[in-house]
Amino acid sequence: MIKIGEYNTLDIIRESEQGIYLADADGNEVLLPNRYVPESFKIWESIDVFVYLDNEERPVAVTDQPYVTVNNFAVLRCNQVTRHGAFLDWGMVKELFCPFKEQAFKMKAGGWYLIYCYLDEETNRLVASSKTNSFLDNSKLTVKQFDEVDLIVSHPSELGMNVIVNEHHHGLIYKDDIYKELSVGDRLKGIVKKVRHDNKLDITLGQIGYRNIEPNAEKILHHLEDSEGFIPLTDKSSPELIKDELEMSKKSFKKAIGSLYKQRLITIDADGIRLV
The domain 7-62: what is its CATH number? Predict the structure, then answer.
């Protein structure tokens, strides 16, 4: 079966004036237009192509690489808005359509939006939706506490920053656990800090408990080396100063310098910490 919105490995079966025809193992055919035909090829040779619907709603194969494939998230630019909806740049000749009903907020030309690409079963068209929470499910979790997870920054809230966890679940990073600037669409690693009774996920960008000492201690050592062996921070420094200087919480900082001090790698003086 040739899959719309995905990469397909198909066989070249014949040439035509319009291009070359490709087929899957079941004999389903699709055209690869002349503009995408490689300079040299052989009949029954396999080729990797992306398949979607052209402007006349016919399946077509291309060798272009889209910015997003079906059932995935991406940040895309809105090229134009018409009375039908928004049209997004996804790296293809035909723009990706986002109907008004699928817009969390009304899109504007030139804006960038986090979207989910899915196949509309009624029209067989690929469609975008910025209502990303609709495609997340926490009813049956595939992660547990302390798991390392892949994150996509979704949208801010009063409590912190909402994130997409492993492209499947919804999670939240609380403000106190955010030590660097985050933007919608950023992809990064995180740790499941807590699984709540209602399956809501608390996420942290750092490691947890005793695991947090070593990485932060190493980070402080590197920072000391880059700062001529001295950092004007102590356990009396404000959380804001520590966050600005080292991108970590005061609690993590105190644990880290305590570990370094016990190993006799630093001295803790009244005006800051120094490499031994």
Answer: 2.40.50.140
Q: Which tens digit of pLDDT belongs to each residue from 213-233?
A: 568 888 898 899 889 899 999
Q: What is the CATH number of domain 148-206?
A: 2.40.50.140
Question: How far is it, in rounded angstroms, from Cα 99 to Cα 129?
Answer: 8
Model confidence pLDDT, tens digit, residues 181-223: 899 999 999 999 889 989 999 999 876 554 555 688 888 988 9
Q: Which residues of 132-151 are buried (b: 16+ CB within 10 A; e: fewer)?
A: beebbebeebebeeeeebeb
Name the region of 45 (left: φ>0; alpha: ψ -120 to 50; beta: rest): beta
Fold for 211-275, please state it: Arc Repressor Mutant, subunit A (1.10.10)
| β-pair type (72-81, 272-275) | unpaired
Residues forming a β-bridge with 131: none
* Domains 7-62 and 72-133 alike in fold: yes
Count CA atoms within 13 Å of residue 241 on its CB side.
9
| Structural fold of domain 72-133 | OB fold (Dihydrolipoamide Acetyltransferase, E2P) (2.40.50)
Query: Edge-to-edge strands of the sheet including 272-275?
Result: 230-231, 272-275, 266-269
What is the phi-psi region of residue 186: left when phi exceeds 0, alpha when psi lies from -120 to 50, beta otherwise?
Answer: beta
Across the chain, how many H-helices and E-strands are there? 3, 18
